[in-house]
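Researcher: We plan to redesign the surface later, but first we want a full-length starting point. Tokens attached.
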């Protein structure tokens, strides 16, 4: 489960608007801290791009292994769709 999913579940489970606001504020503070740490808009954009697609990146080796096991291997060119 990704961090966004966890935050989403927390928001759904919040019992009050105040609790939702605290969760949202905490999420925004985390994003600002990450942006400050990276200290560069281009680096943050690359990080954000990666984070949005992280679930796909993590599933790709499993997909490739399953397709190879069934003699339907992904060719290198097909496997580079993420770049």
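Model: Full-length starting sequence:
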């Amino acid at each position: 489960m990704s961090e966004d999913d966890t935050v989403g579940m927390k928001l759904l489970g919040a019992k009050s608007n105040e609790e939702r606001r605290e969760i949202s504020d905490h999420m925004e503070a985390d994003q600002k801290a990450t942006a400050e740490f990276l200290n560069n808009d281009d680096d943050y954009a690359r990080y954000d791009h990666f984070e949005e697609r992280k679930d796909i990146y993590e599933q790709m080796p499993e997909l490739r292994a399953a397709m190879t096991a069934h003699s339907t291997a992904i060719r290198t060119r097909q496997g580079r769709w993420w770049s």
